[in-house]
Structures are given as C-alpha cells and as structure tokens.
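How a chain folds remains the central question behind the approach discussed here. In the encoding step, the backbone of a single protein was reduced to a row of integers, each denoting a local shape. We regard such an encoding as a compact summary of how the chain folds. The sequence in question and its structure tokens are set out directly beneath this paragraph:

___
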Amino acid sequence: MNEWKYDEQLLTYKKIKKARQIFRNCIVYFVSSIVLAVIYYVIFALVIDTEQEKQFKKEYVYLESAYDSLSMNLLKAQSVLEHLKYQDTMIYRSIFKTNPTESDMAFETRNFNMSSVMGNYNLVNMTSATIAQLVERVNENNAKMEAALSKINSDKTAFRNIPAIQPVENKNLTYNSVSTGMKIHPFYRIPKMHTGLDYTVPINTKVIATADGIVENIVDDAAKGIAIYINHGNGYKTVYAHLAKALVKKGAKVQRGKLIALSGDSGLSIFPHLHYEVWKNGKFINPINCFFAELNPTQLKTMLYTSSNIGQSLD
C-alpha cells in the first residue's frame, strides 16, 4: 500500500517512494559501518599490540642490546689484536734486528648470508659466541706474547745466537739448493747422508754469519775444502764449506749478517757452491727450517719442496 504526503507548496499529495528510501538508508548504514570499522581498527592498532607485534618489539629490544654488545666486543678484540701486532714487531726487532716479513699466503674466505637460514635470535647468539671465542683466543695469545717478550727482554743475547737467516743473499730464491737427507754422492755414486744445504752460487759470492757467535775453527781439508766452524752457544753450531777464502780468524767474534768468507769450489766438490750446515746439540738439522727471520711461509715451503726433490748432492 502506497503512502502519500501532502506538499504544502504545490497544494497536492505525492507518493512516497519507499524502496528508494530504504536503499538510501542502506547506503548510509554501510558507509557509516565502514568508517566506524576503520576508526576502530586505527585505535586498536595504535593502542593495543597483537601477540606478533609484542614478539617483534621484544626481539627488537634484544637485538639492539646484542648488537651494542657485539660492537663493544669487536672494538675490544681489534684493540688487543693491534697490541699483539705491536708485540710481534717488537719481538722480531729484538731477535732479528729487523721488521717482520709479510706473508704471501692467501687465505680463501667465504661469505654466507646467515640471516637467510636462521632467525635473528640464533644469528646474534652464534655471532656472540664466535666473538667470545675470538676474544678468548686473542687474550691467550696476548698472554703468550707477553711471556715471550718478557723472556726476550731478560736474555736478548740468547735469541741473537739462533741461526735464523740464509748464509748468502737469496731472498728471491734465485739459487738452487740441495737439502739434507739421503742423496747420491757425486763422486762415489752411492746413497750417502747429506748433512747440509748446498747453494749453487758462483765463486766469490759473499758468505755471511747466520747468527752471533765465535769462530771455533777454520780448516782446509780434502772433503770440505776451506771451511769455517762457528759456535753460537745454546747448542747451535754452523759450518760453511768449500770456500774460496775465509775473511775471519779463529776465535773472532761475529754478528749475524757479518761477512765471513767468499764461496768457492775447494775440497770434494763437483761444482762451485756453498755447503751450509746447522747443528743443534750435536745433531744436524735442515737449515731451511731456520730461515724464519728472512723468508715467509710460502717461500719456505717452496724452498723445502724444490731442495728435497733433488736427488744428488754437490759434495
């Protein structure tokens, strides 16, 4: 049934369109509901945190604190490492009167994006544990360095008596060498123990003392030719054989790096060379193992490899 409404201006009745009114009311109600829902959501989001948001906030606070702690630990480790570097330099200067050699060894490193395979908590915990282990190891090495430096300062003479350099100028390893061990003798053609290191240097190459010491003897015999024997103390002795000329006298005091002779081809030698020996407490050792003050690890490895693969000695 239709409803009528009187229009006072037109002085007539008009039908009321009820359906249109209902639709209009629905639209108003719908829009009002959406606006109200948005207002409720904004208020809820600003005032009340969800469980996930609470967890994120806790994690953020933890990570912020953890990263601050990691930064402090890294700065501490860096400071200690710098101190270790300084101590290492002081030790080299005290023993060898020179700066440490730079190693040519290359270390392969891998970079992993750990955050892609573990949560932030695990990542921070793992990093914290790694830095803690690093700091612990650095502190241990620092204590060892302190002890070594203290020992050096208390007895610097003992370290100057270690044969720690090559007897000839050979930093670039330009001279081939034959190491200790069983080698074919060039004259007897049988395996024979070789107790030194042979350098294929030209005649009259400068030969230097490898450590501080006293010239114990100078001989000229059929086997070693002209040879110089130096006693360095602490059980160390060195021999320089097949020389062309000795430039020091028996009983003379020598220092590491001092010119003591010229190389030659005297004695039982198949080719001009220098035969160099290092003895410790009456037993010969491979001289290459004593060149740590002059050669870096890569050079020492190369020299050991090439010299040990030569099957015949020069004397």
About this structure: The chain has three domains: 4-47, 51-154, 177-308.
